[in-house]
Amino acid sequence: MSTNAMSKTKPAFVDTLKLHGYVDSYGNLKLGNTALTELPENYIVKGFLDIEGSEIIRLPNTLTITGHLNAAHSKLTTLPKIDVGGYINLTGSKLKVLPAGLTVKGDLSLVNTPIRALPRRLNVKGNLFLTNTKVKQLPPDLQVGGDIYMRNTEITNVPENVRIGGRLYR
Length: 170
Hints:
Strand order of the largest sheet: 2-5-7-9-11-13-15-17
Order of helices and strands: EHEEEEEEEEEEEEEEEE
Strand content: 15-25%
Shape: globular
Distance between the termini: 44 Å
Helix content: under 10%
Organism: Enterovibrio norvegicus
Protein name: Leucine-rich repeat protein
Number of helices: 1
Structural class: mainly beta
């Protein structure tokens, strides 16, 4: 039996999280050791969202996170095009797909994920970590404000149109 936060009303969901100490006084939400598998639609996290190692299998399309998202070693296989105010850490997760046009306001870590391709119009304001992924090529319209780490990937060349603010590490 899984716990589905979607079936609860928003106030009950928020009150339950506060009661059990998952939301701190800054609005950060830590769900790493909960039985939750989903979050409700239209939910706003007023700090960071930490679901590292959690049972959460999907995030709602209407989720807003004002801080960063830590979904390392989570069961997420896809990431919707959500608004995240900082970095996105998906290291060691089950992630296979990112949405086209995703903008990441900090670093994006895909280290040790089964992802095979990056989406079109991906814009990463910080560093992009691709180490130990199955990515074979970079999309021609990729924008990265910092460095790209692509050790232990099958990427052999970088398209001319790719914009990189930092360095490439192979």
